[in-house]
Amino acid sequence: MKNGTAHLFIPGPTNIPDAVRRAMNVPMQDMRAPDFPELVLPLFRDLKRIFKTETGSVFIFPGSGTGAWEAAISNTLNRGDRVLMSRFGQFSHLWVDMAERLGLEVDCIDVEWGEGVPLDAYRQRLGDDKGSKIKAVFATHNETATGVTSDVAGVRAALDETAHDALLFVDGVSSIGSIDFRMDEWGVDLAITGSQKGLMLPAGLGILAVSAKGLEAHKQSRMERCYFSFEDMQASSKTGFFPYTPPTQLLLGLRASLDLIFAEGLEQIFARHHRLAEGVRRGVHAWGLKLCANEEKWWSDTVSAIVVSEDVDARQVIANGYSRYRTSFGAGLSKVAGRVFRIGHLGDLNEVMCLAALASAEMSLRDAGARIEAGSGVAAAQEWYRAEIGRTLQPRHERAA
Amino acid sequence: MKNGTAHLFIPGPTNIPDAVRRAMNVPMQDMRAPDFPELVLPLFRDLKRIFKTETGSVFIFPGSGTGAWEAAISNTLNRGDRVLMSRFGQFSHLWVDMAERLGLEVDCIDVEWGEGVPLDAYRQRLGDDKGSKIKAVFATHNETATGVTSDVAGVRAALDETAHDALLFVDGVSSIGSIDFRMDEWGVDLAITGSQKGLMLPAGLGILAVSAKGLEAHKQSRMERCYFSFEDMQASSKTGFFPYTPPTQLLLGLRASLDLIFAEGLEQIFARHHRLAEGVRRGVHAWGLKLCANEEKWWSDTVSAIVVSEDVDARQVIANGYSRYRTSFGAGLSKVAGRVFRIGHLGDLNEVMCLAALASAEMSLRDAGARIEAGSGVAAAQEWYRAEIGRTLQPRHERAA
Amino acid sequence: MKNGTAHLFIPGPTNIPDAVRRAMNVPMQDMRAPDFPELVLPLFRDLKRIFKTETGSVFIFPGSGTGAWEAAISNTLNRGDRVLMSRFGQFSHLWVDMAERLGLEVDCIDVEWGEGVPLDAYRQRLGDDKGSKIKAVFATHNETATGVTSDVAGVRAALDETAHDALLFVDGVSSIGSIDFRMDEWGVDLAITGSQKGLMLPAGLGILAVSAKGLEAHKQSRMERCYFSFEDMQASSKTGFFPYTPPTQLLLGLRASLDLIFAEGLEQIFARHHRLAEGVRRGVHAWGLKLCANEEKWWSDTVSAIVVSEDVDARQVIANGYSRYRTSFGAGLSKVAGRVFRIGHLGDLNEVMCLAALASAEMSLRDAGARIEAGSGVAAAQEWYRAEIGRTLQPRHERAA
Amino acid sequence: MKNGTAHLFIPGPTNIPDAVRRAMNVPMQDMRAPDFPELVLPLFRDLKRIFKTETGSVFIFPGSGTGAWEAAISNTLNRGDRVLMSRFGQFSHLWVDMAERLGLEVDCIDVEWGEGVPLDAYRQRLGDDKGSKIKAVFATHNETATGVTSDVAGVRAALDETAHDALLFVDGVSSIGSIDFRMDEWGVDLAITGSQKGLMLPAGLGILAVSAKGLEAHKQSRMERCYFSFEDMQASSKTGFFPYTPPTQLLLGLRASLDLIFAEGLEQIFARHHRLAEGVRRGVHAWGLKLCANEEKWWSDTVSAIVVSEDVDARQVIANGYSRYRTSFGAGLSKVAGRVFRIGHLGDLNEVMCLAALASAEMSLRDAGARIEAGSGVAAAQEWYRAEIGRTLQPRHERAA
């Protein structure tokens, strides 16, 4: 069962483009060489385009998205600070856990898994916070565990409407680069991502963008930190170097990845992710199954969490995919373990790969006892893809007409 | 349309396993070094297992399968020699053409495209050839253009029944390593293959195995030759070197490929190819289409040539696959251009990849106007794969029962 | 000037073996797959052999050696804890800086750059510390900035002689895997290394080994931490998984690297590093120059810091090497900037590479005005290497005689 | 002895640039795809610049330089044709051997090994050939076995002076791309090279350029040929395809290699090869040894064949280099076996690599009993390289002054 391509449909690490893979296959190089900044400085510049920020500053930490979460908190807040968070999946749960462990006083709103950031509740808490005790508001843009995308612009609106000046932290690990994210327009202060999702790299980099307001808050922050400290990193990265040995291999991969992203175009990438995701969703609905994201407005274009019927164990579906069909699906985590399996559809992906995912899922489901019709999900997705691709191929004047 | 994996379903070059790809990614090395034979000699030994020969000798020429065809002819025959050939597809056609251009007198039997080597006709010609004018009999084991596998054992039987001592040449380019081939048992004298099919390497090596009888004939051969000469190659390769600079990269890839082949097991590989091919065929039949191979006995386990309905242009199917769905199918060549498209299913392949091929073909066909049902081929193949894989996973004692 | 190999003689990242490079050139994989522990668990087991510990526990953090420093401190100590450190180069300096920033009360002994850990002073401070206020003693095993190796066994002896039960922290970033290091024998509690030195990988992993006593101390540690917390990592890694997405690519590289290390043999690797280093030192002395390490007992087998004569600017030597001869040397850092340049000689290296380093350094020195004789350093090293290699090639019985 | 870089100083295959290596590390692709010509057609166009021909046609055969030799002969001559050749090393010897085996009547002038094409003798034979019986004149531009470069323009002059219209064949396997070669200016009709020398690729492609006169001769050629036939190749390559499966991997590598070549500039590459070669020669002369090329006019800028003193066995030098110092030198072939070892200095090479070659050769020589001074060759080369690089770095106005 080890023949041929392994079919990777987890929501990260994502499939890496071959050009990126090649770019990382290099001998080691001198990270103190005078021309090293020629590699590094444009990375910072170009990552700003990914975050859609002109005024923010970008930080690249060797680590992971979790490390970038920690960098964001420990550089801008202080122990005992009150923060507003919401929890509706494993990753928003872990972020709350980190905030507590780092000494924040978390005002956490628990929301049903399958929904996202509760805008009304946020607005109310912010409105009630007359003394501005809440120092920061946290939003998980895309909850990877449930396939739920939240409305970050809505969080900004809640802040604005209540004239609250808390910092806005956004976890964009599984959205940035794949789903539209607008740091400046939405007034995000700390935006966090990692290398192994929309940036189509291996894990190993935690990346964050910090607004001018975030950097201002940094000056008041007294948390102990060293590895993840902004000050060391800023001093170095301004000159194109790093305070400690950087993973040069990943920086070269990032260069290749950014080149691919800009060649395709960010908006085109978002459109592609939507098209691919919608095909998967149509497949799921053709099976008669439901998404964990319980309203269309929450549907994520990077990952679909699929609820199996009661008589099926989602763990078995995943096990079948892996052991019988060389396919990796994402598991249902924590509360939804056994009830949900996930299809990641972000990064370097195309229509036929999504059809392969659906075909493999159909077999894995049926092997696990699911009463779904063979080929039904594939057929529904095919029709969507054919129509969409046909539409884009239509001569321009016809479309105009 | 350049995102994600390119789906390669041509009958060679085939998808290369990642381990093979990695093995070829090397700095250059000294092909005259004293330890170079430690790489080379085991390759010759192990290739004999691929050809299933103990008494034959293996030759590796930098070139292609076409080069190995020429090496076989120019080293064992003489200009003006009469040979018996048959023609039922583009590749058997090209082999006849080469034989004529190299100065052989070809007794060519034309057979309908969709059938294979005509055993009865061969038996008759051989029986009629009282003066043993026929010096060699040629058989294309697997006609890549039409997806037809011929009965090489049957050709041997025809020779034996007529007590004819002509040499037996077999083109196994798209069979050896994927479909059972038994050089010694079938009394094949010149067996030809290339690197880019069942051996799962890039193109660049023409490989042939020669029986003791073939080497004996070589002594009588007076054709001019130099690059492809057996004598130079034999003298060198016996010592583990080459008469001219070999493509070391491919030799290292071959090492990795042979290791994978023996780890899986040749018989298991043949079974896998049959299982994968049968899934594709069930898909084709579920569409209501026919194979070019017009009887089950001719069905090839490495490539399926699919006949489209009269109102569809197969060229359009292939063009759709390539431009819309990032999928490469094989074209209908020469006589069957426009009527046939081909799905190659050999090499490093698994079930979900074949389902992807079918899903992509369904869309490409429907876009080209074919009246086939979306998802129908995928569903038929899924059911076959599920049953087959389920069968292999069944506990051993149950199966025994 | 971009032709041919870049000659990398910095003390890390080191030259990567091709087998390691190939092992990292992979598609992404599912880090939650049931067989993922088959990769991970043996890594932990085998790293223990590198640290020479049977009772310790190994942690692998995505990050760098600096991150592992932080993990060691923040998991076993508490803010306000008194620790004994010494400072004699840029890296011991940075470690002191980190300790202070993380809230420790550092009792720092400054030593002349060119010497190592001051055993007598340590013994005295420990002896004086009747109330056991010193919670930990820190030793930089190999100070990369000055090419000084310290006597860790001596630090242990100082602790034992004074019957002090402080934890022993050792920075082995540029020693472990290249210079003998014996965690259990020396009673080291926190041993730190990174991927990009003796492990011959790109930067990206901070690795540490923790003694049972260190884990005991962990239970009393109340520093805030999350990313680098032992508890999360231990819970996961016991099962062969990670608490957040690991850099799988580097784990695969580590597998390949460990395989190479054990194939060569740790003791053989130490001997090779000594042989190579001694050749470089003989070259330096043939030039009439001195090492920064001011006594033979401090000489490092992984990096030589070379003091240029007063009329030469070491920065110019390094600039010449880089811009004229495609060679990277290490810079003199901080106090010794301009006075010192460094030749890193650790990792995947051989004699002729060291001769290339010396040849390039000779040109770079002479271009910078140094009055050294062309070829003199190369000649001295050649004679040493010839003799050493000749000795190892001598028939065993001759050597015995 | 397997640590670190293997030092490859054979005259091909040469060290491959990392960018080329990366470019070849690819999944397989569809060599019948409609956009495949976008890769292929520019290769033909750009190779013409390498040959310095505007009117010639380029052919790329999967094979080797030897294959291209055969293609050149079998496509433009006829059995029994008289040709003028000269023999002064192993490769010119092998070419004569091929010509004879392919049925040509060879008028061969034997020249002392260490000299090159005998212009006077050529002029005389051509002048004497009143009936124009000589159909072709052959010249080995660079005899790889002896490190001798011949004067191709001189051969053209001999033809012109005698008003002889024989075709001019040139073996440029180890010169083209590294030493100036001017196909059109010198009136070369058949120019032959391979991939593994100046083109810095693995072996696997035989490349030749054919003048209009050569193509005219082709029409009269009646030699049997198929694999290497111009007609099939021309028909295909005009459209950007190949008559049989091409080694796509190498074509992608060729693209990368040509890009590097044009980025550096052909004339700059020739100058670099001269500079590097001259350093090696100065090293050899500093040792008190002589080149096989017995006059300066014959000295090759791509390979130096070095004559050892009588009491030394050159085979031992090579064995020492390989087994003790991880270095590959070229052997003395045939007549000069044991008397000569070779340092290849072509392709992707820089000064410090050449110094490494000399340093390794010094040790290998001394280990073999040669009475040369350690470091002497390195020192001589260093001084040359320093001066040459210094010269190129000198401000433009100083140089002008």
Write the layout of secondary structure elements.
The structure is a homotetramer of 401-residue chains.
Chain A: E1 7-9, H1 18-23, H2 36-51, E2 57-62, H3 65-76, E3 82-87, H4 90-101, E4 105-110, H5 119-128, E5 134-140, E6 142-143, E7 148-149, H6 152-161, E8 167-171, E9 190-194, E10 205-210, H7 212-220, H8 230-237, H9 248-264, H10 266-286, E11 290-291, E12 303-307, H11 314-325, E13 327-331, E14 340-344, H12 351-367, H13 376-393, H14 396-400
Parallel strand pairs in A: 1-13, 3-4, 3-5, 5-8, 8-9
Antiparallel strand pairs in A: 2-10, 6-7, 9-10, 11-12, 12-14, 13-14
Helix pairs in contact in A: 2-9, 5-6, 10-12, 10-13, 11-12, 12-13
Rg on CA atoms of chain A, Å: 21 Å
Number of helices of chain A: 14
N/C terminus separation of chain A: 51 Å
Supply the CATH architecture of the largest domain in chain A.
3-Layer(aba) Sandwich
Morphology call of chain A: globular
Estimated share of beta-strand residues of chain A? 15-25%
Q: List unreliable stretches of 5+ residues of chain A.
A: none
Structure description:
4 copies of one chain form a homotetramer. With about 400 residues, chain A is α/β, with parallel strands linked by helices. The first copy, chain A, folds into 2 domains: about 5-15 and about 265-400, Aspartate Aminotransferase, domain 1, CATH 3.90.1150; about 20-265, Type I PLP-dependent aspartate aminotransferase-like (Major domain) (Aspartate Aminotransferase, domain 2), CATH 3.40.640. Chain A is built from 14 helices and 14 strands. In chain A, helix 11 (about 315-325) crosses helix 12 (about 350-365). Chains in contact: A-B, A-C, A-D, B-C, B-D, C-D. Chains A and C meet through helix 3, helix 4, helix 9, helix 11 and strand 13 of A and helix 3, helix 4, helix 10, helix 12 and strand 13 of C.
